[in-house]
Amino acid sequence: MTSQPFDLRGKVAIVTGGNGGIGLGMARGLADAGAAIAVVGRNQAKSVAAVADLAGRGVSAIAVAADVTDKAAVDAMVARVERELGRIDILVNNAGINIRKPPHTLELNEWNEVMATNLTSAFLCSQAAHRAMKTTGAGKIINIGSMMSIFGAGFAPAYAASKGGIVQFTRACACAWAADNIQVNAVLPGWIDTDLTRRAREEIGGLNERVLARTPAARWGTAGEFAGIAVFLASSASDFVTGAAIPVDGGYSIMG
Question: Which CATH code of 2.60.40.10, 3.10.310.40, 3.40.50.720, 1.10.10.60 fits the domain covering 12-195+222-248?
Fold first, then answer.
């Protein structure tokens, strides 16, 4: 560990789905710690706005439009980040979607879309980033899981399966890449106030009341509250932390 363990100056981070919600909250934290940021997302207008926000914090930032479910697109994205920002030290696999249907009404194409966006993208991006990180001799990968990897939810079978997969994929990569000095961890967000969960509150009656009743903090989390965990897991402060799945949930997961 360095004398300034949370200092990310000189580091370069890729954040998929980094143009809003938890991804942007993490990107802002990494930028405030000094890292240059590549925001990867499909909505280029949102990505450009996010890059302007991050650049205003005094760091280099670029927007990269890429389909993170496509291997060729991911390889091209990583190559562009290396070319324009010089290196890759940190990867945040945050891209994700949810289709809320019970398993008996979920269509196969819907299942495949969720699995590809949430899980396959993490595999492709991690695999591509690993090559770059191995070259520099170190790296940090942060995968965004969910409380749904712990609890059952009848309205989110594909999402839950993908996030359970994220936790096990995290552990596999942590074991495989420890020798390359690459730490791989997962963050498990609880109920966070984002565009995705606002739609959930519209679609699932009583959700807001149930969340508030079960969460010891008695509120929904905010995207900005993921800045700290992002900096910790991206920095030398976490060099002996790997394969972990860390809830950031206001205590939701500890309640009986």
Answer: 3.40.50.720
